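User: If only I could read backbone structure tokens as easily as an amino acid sequence. Those tokens are not coordinates but codes from a learned vocabulary of shapes. Could you go through the record with me and say what the backbone is doing? Here is the record:
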Amino acid sequence: MNLVGLFVHSKFRIGVVLLLTAIPAIVAASPAIQDVRIASQTDSTRVVFELNETAKQKIFTLNNPLRVVIDLANTNLNTPLPDGMGLVKSLRSASHDGVLRVVLDINGSADLQSSWLEANSDYGPRLVLDLQRTGTMREGVPAVLPPIAAVNSSANSSNNSSSSLNASVDPQPIKTLPANVGNSRELVIAIDAGHGGEDPGAIGRHGLREKNVTLAIARLLKDRIDAEPGMHAMLTRDGDYFVPLRDRIDRARQFKADMFISIHADSVKDRSVTGSSVYTLSGKGATNEAARWLADRENAADLVGGVSLDNKNNLLASVLLDLTQGASMSASLDAAARVLQHLDSVGDVHHSDVQQAGFVVLKSPDIPSMLVETAFISNSDEEARLSAPKHQAQLADAILAGVREYFYVNTPPGTRLAQIKATRQARNN
């Protein structure tokens, strides 16, 4: 072999060595499913795919048989798939041309939502699929929904995607509200415990998780509201599971809620910051939501203020929405101010006035809504107080006091509370 041939041969050998050396690094850097978890309740099932890093995905549904298909680009499956549970009959997988396909065989008609959750100290990034049996979330939605186009979303997107599964099954009964007393009805308060399940929320210096604190306070607040004559409370979640933000609004609408209260525990880098805050929807947030409703009204099954927008012209629909939103925002500010005043008697308040922001859970146009930051879990002293049942009860008492005060001043006609007020006034006279 001459020198030129030796040089070429050597370059080839070096290239092969370098390529073989690089292969393990490339494989190690590929996204991989490290764990698959499944949990189920009566009408819902959640499947969580935990990865070492996010992957570009395509999620769509197929019929005959009914199934959900998840395609993950350049992704490996490093864990066995669990057995089916609830609405998921079974799980199976296959790889082809660098794409990992996971198929969920589904039992019956269901609504599907998918979302990515960011990595935290306990979990890697997670692709979460939530299946809700059709007909249990809101009135007016048929038990059998038409097929939809495939859902494509970027792995780095923070937006949830949703679709529906089409199957011919009997509709499930919608949860009923408490029975009316005579011709009156009870006021319904929707209580939203922030975060949950795969989303722990903020975590205190000593390990206290926001999702646990918010659920504990929400349950205490529900007990207190249920004990109030003329009032009844409903929880958007009553366990340690994840509920997408707009589903929380949908559940409040399903409950026909008169008020929506979202419970949270704040966190900032500065651990010296303390105090409670109460938020309502900002003007900008309301404007954005109004545009969304007006754009989607022809396909919306929901009602705004009890009036459907789908058959109204643009001007009338806009006027109706403005009136509804304006009244709701005014009521929200009034109720939130009363709650903040009572929280001030429990401990420090971070802001002396009600704050306004564009939080998604505050965007129901026709339900007065507030978000209560009970304290800063990032502050060690407040973390300790938040973990104490006595302080949790005091926070629940303060929120109840503000809500009760608001409704005794602004009592909706036709409610049991209006009857109670009238009876008390007659006795006093």
